[in-house]
């Protein structure tokens, strides 16, 4: 599915729609160049989940956890990591929700994952003219409830 995102707000709205409809243990793999809008989409996700605090980029902290919304949000950014370091993070802890409360896992720079979960949604953001972006969304072994997505875009 390809979605056109003419401005920042459109990307945020896509995140809101996903935050309103996704279930616990959903994993969103965010791909795309620097500044493509990955963090912007996760900020919408936070809003859709009802998280009342600002979502900030975890580029330096690696992972930010938010427990204040409908479901926990685990926001990761792999930009600064080597594959060995990514493996050492034991990310399955988050997407299996075994040692942590199951929630939504959003991973920026998911291109750097040496392995993937069993079920995931890929959102690949690319640049268009000026402020426009394109989101290519693909699901693997899972579904996005369509109605909320359609209603908000
Ligand atoms: N259509 C759009 N969608 C998202 N962001 C947009 C759009 N148009 C302009 N922007 C701007 O581009 C920037 C995107 O920044 P953002 O931090 O979300 O990107 P990112 O993909 O997370 O970058 P990084 O790779 O550094 O983590 C913001 O300043 C945002 O306002
Ligand atoms: Mg970012």
Short description, anyone?
One of its GO terms (biological process) is tRNA threonylcarbamoyladenosine modification. The chain is α/β, with parallel strands linked by helices and 153 residues long. The chain has helices at 8-21, 38-48, 83-88, 92-96, 146-152, and strands at 2-5, 27-31, 63-66, 73-77, 104-108, 120-127, 133-140.
List keywords for this structure.
single chain; 153 residues; alpha/beta; Rossmann fold; 5 helices; 7 strands; 28% helix; globular; binds adenosine-5'-triphosphate; binds magnesium ion; P-loop_NTPase; nucleotide-binding; cytoplasm; T6A_TsaE
If you had to describe this structure to a student in words, what would you say it looks like?
By secondary structure, this protein is α/β, with parallel strands linked by helices. It has a single domain, classed as Rossmann fold, CATH 3.40.50. It is built from 5 helices and 7 strands, in the order E-H-E-H-E-E-H-H-E-E-E-H. A 7-stranded mixed β-sheet has the order 1-7-6-2-5-4-3. Helix 1 runs antiparallel to helix 5 (146-152). The longest helix has 14 residues, at 8-21. It starts with a strand and ends with a helix. The structure holds adenosine-5'-triphosphate and magnesium ion (MG).
């Amino acid at each position: 599915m390809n979605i056109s995102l003419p401005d920042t707000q459109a990307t945020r709205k896509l995140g809101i729609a996903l935050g309103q409809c996704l279930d616990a243990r959903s994993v969103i793999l965010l791909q795309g160049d620097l500044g493509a809008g990955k963090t912007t989409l996760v900020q919408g996700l936070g809003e859709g989940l009802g998280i009342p605090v600002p979502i900030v980029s975890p580029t330096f902290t690696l992972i930010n956890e938010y427990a204040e919304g409908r479901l926990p949000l685990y926001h990761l950014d792999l930009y600064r990591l080597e594959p060995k370091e990514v493996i050492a993070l034991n990310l399955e802890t988050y997407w299996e929700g075994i040692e942590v409360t199951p929630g939504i896992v959003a991973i920026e720079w998911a291109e750097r994952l040496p392995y993937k979960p069993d079920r995931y949604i890929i959102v690949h953001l690319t640049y268009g003219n000026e402020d426009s972006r394109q989101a290519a969304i693909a699901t693997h072994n899972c579904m996005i409830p369509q109605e909320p997505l359609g209603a908000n875009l």
